[in-house]
Design brief:
The structure is a single chain. The protein contains 13 helices and 25 strands. The protein is of the alpha+beta class. It is globular, with a radius of gyration of 25 Å. The two termini are about 35 Å apart.
């Protein structure tokens, strides 16, 4: 194993210290999807985030109403901002106009966090979804909110999609108020409130991705159709002595969040893995993803070999480096049952040297994840689908939640259990029961899990066209009836999925009890029992470690 530098240790500490510094997003344009929809993905990977489906109904407020802002990660009160006169309904991370937003935290230069800011990154997403109809409008709202109220969080990347356009937006704060002395030694307080940022539209026919590392480098300075940025994104860097070259050579990432070994291996490697699944030619960036060739950076977007379906994009969210040198089922950490999970912390020390686990897209600490679909040819309440799942994406089920619904399934609802309060009909706990049981005998149980997973998701995809057509006909007659129909459908699918997963847990627990594999034997009282043991490769590992210690019938020493 490669000996690690200090930057790796720092990156690993950040992954543990920041509650959501571990999320993965992919962005798919209309021309890159099979049906002409735009899609973004989001995995909210936090050891302390409870997976539930947020719902905020549309509302009207009197002039002068103020909104209390609480930090999304911690619940800490940050301050008040002006409430909008009208807010749109929001289901998860998609609003009633098919606008969807996801995020990943990259941290960046630590001195640029503004502890006096009022709006954190998480609250910013959900406030924006309540106030914007399109991706461009969302970018404008985000910029205005931060300029007026200040930005509380560290560096952040956002995926923003409406039915026609997909954008990636990266930002970082300008630091807390600080004392600055002039040439005469006089001290004055300086506070650059707000954030510096740049947003780029993904070209049609291409896909992009980001995973806890800023990815926008140089960008066009005179192309507002495809690139929007804060007016001081470069001048602020000059003021802070971060950059002194020509404007055309300014790189957002290299200035505000340079890539090091940890950022490449833990973060950029996930983007590479997703790209590698759908686009040939990614081999030339393999050494970069591994953290060894940091100068050969991946492009911000790539063209997939074929257009992607929602199932293809869900597959990207279930990656653990299958078929690559980093395949997590192939190293010793996989154990005898080819596990794709690694218990934290990410790094450990032996004899003073630091080593690490791989960090894949699919991971055990996911609170919730989704794939959003925005479809321009349908009425908004029908066109937007949030394919939503909780817990580990590899063992979860993505259930369709139409953006026009007026309620969410009880099994996914806020308040049904919490991270420290078990609820036997909460999706988060039911899916965790199955996944955590599977971790004990992964290669066997995952086969049974995927049969049910595939059947459910296949059914949902097959139903979509029929549900769409029925909803559109109702919408023509009465939009409220269409919303009611979509609500009933989404709620029923969500609750029935959790009920099916309860059955799966009972089946798995019975079948694999005590390390055996049991199946019914006709009408006999007792089942057939198999004792599968371990793979030969694992037995050989035992021999390499113990020699003849366990050799049957060996002579005493």
């Amino acid at each position: 194993m490669l000996k690690k530098s200090l930057t790796l240790v720092v990156a690993a500490m950040l992954l543990v210290a920041q509650p959501l510094l571990a999320c993965t997003n992919f962005l798919v344009t209309k021309g890159a999807s099979t049906d002409g929809s735009t899609m973004i993905t989001y995995a909210a990977d936090s050891h302390v985030l409870y997976g539930e489906l947020y719902f905020r109904p549309a509302a009207d407020y009197p002039e002068g109403t103020m909104l209390d802002v609480y930090e999304w990660d911690t619940g800490k009160y940050l301050g008040k901002i002006k409430q909008a006169r009208h807010t749109y309904s929001v289901v998860g991370n998609m609003n009633e106009h098919q606008l969807a937003i996801g995020e990943t935290t990259y941290g960046g230069l630590p001195e640029l966090v503004d502890t006096t800011g009022i709006i954190d990154y998480g609250t910013l997403m959900y406030i924006t979804l309540q106030r914007a109809k399109t991706a461009r409008e969302a970018i404008r709202v985000i910029g205005e909110l931060l300029a007026e109220y200040g930005y509380y969080s560290s560096g952040e990347s956002f995926s923003i999609a409406d039915p026609n356009e997909v954008w990636v937006m990266e930002m970082i704060g300008k630091g807390s108020p600080r004392d600055v002395a002039d040439k005469r030694g006089r001290v004055r307080k300086v506070h650059n409130k707000g954030a510096v940022w740049v947003a780029m539209r993904i070209p049609d026919g291409y896909i992009s991705g980001h995973a806890n590392q800023a990815r926008i480098t140089t960008f066009p300075l005179n192309d507002p159709e495809n690139c929007i940025y804060s007016p001081d994104v470069i001048s602020f860097a000059r003021e802070m002595k971060y950059f002194s070259g020509e404007d055309k050579d300014f790189s957002f990432s290299d200035t505000y969040a340079p890539v090091d070994f940890g950022a490449a291996r833990f973060c950029e490697a996930r983007v590479w893995a997703g790209f590698n699944r759908v686009s040939t030619g990614m081999d030339k960036y393999a050494e970069y993803a591994k953290g060894y060739d940091l100068k050969n950076r991946m492009p911000l977007w790539v063209k997939p070999d074929k257009k992607l379906s929602v199932q293809d994009v869900i597959g990207m969210m279930r990656d653990y480096y299958q078929g690559t040198d980093l395949d997590m089922t192939k190293d010793v950490g996989a154990g005898p049952y080819q596990s794709i999970v690694r218990w934290r912390p990410m790094t450990w020390k032996v004899d003073g040297e630091t080593y690490f686990h791989e960090r894949a897209i699919s991971t055990q600490q996911t609170g919730f994840s989704f794939v959003s679909q925005s479809r321009s040819w349908l009425p908004d309440p029908v066109g937007g689908i949030l394919w939503f799942g909780v817990d580990d994406s590899y063992t979860s089920v993505y259930v369709p939640m139409y953006c026009g619904i007026t309620a969410v399934p009880e099994a996914f609802a806020v308040g049904n259990g919490s991270m420290m309060e078990f609820s036997d009909n909460a999706a988060f706990w039911v899916f965790n029961q199955v996944s955590n049981l599977a971790y004990t005998r992964y290669k066997d149980m995952i086969v049974d899990i995927q049969k049910v997973q595939s059947a459910l998701e296949g059914k949902f995809v097959a139903y979509t066209d029929v549900v769409d057509k029925a909803a559109v006909e109702l919408y023509k007659q009465d939009p409220a009836k269409a919303r009611e129909f979509l609500t009933d459908y989404s709620v029923n699918q969500g609750n029935s999925t959790v009920a099916r997963w309860k059955e799966l847990y009972r089946y798995l627990f019975t079948k694999y009890l005590d390390g055996n594999v049991k199946v019914k034997d006709g009408n006999n009282q007792n089942p057939k029992v198999k004792y599968p043991g371990y793979d030969e490769s694992y037995y050989r590992m035992i021999l390499e470690k113990t020699g003849d210690k366990f050799k049957f019938g060996g002579e005493s020493h």
